[in-house]
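Friendly challenge for the regulars: who can give me the structure tokens for this chain first? No prize, just bragging rights.
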Amino acid sequence: MKYVRVARERGARTFVLVFDRGDDLHAELQRFMETEHVRSGRLSAVGGFSSATLGYYAPEARDYEPIAVAEQVEVLSLLGTIAVMDGKPAAHMHGVVGFRGGAVKGGHVKAATVWPTLEAFVNEYSGELDRVMVPDLGIGLVDLS
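First reply, four minutes later:
Bragging rights claimed.
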């Protein structure tokens, strides 16, 4: 993955990230956030995946049910937030992917391999957001307290 800062305004930055074929979405995004010290923000992206695991949050299980994507798909929309959890920046992403013929699947992005590319924008916020684990839900939520 390559990236460049395209704007800086009042302590916040905007980056364009271009992922390469075969990149692990989460690993590369984590490396970027740690290298650039991005502690809060939002992201959006379009592109493609060769495979992915999406998730549907099942409240009764307090976990995500996996939705397997085992073929080439178009990333029609990928949106996410960045906040600090357990002392490290963490991205929470949801996506919609399109299949040949027009069928779609969507959900929480648990894992994804980029193919042929993914183009993302990261808009950093000047403050820091914290995400904390909510035990009765089994997931981390942004804490505004």
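The radius of gyration is 15 Å. The longest helix spans residues 25-36. Your move, everyone else.
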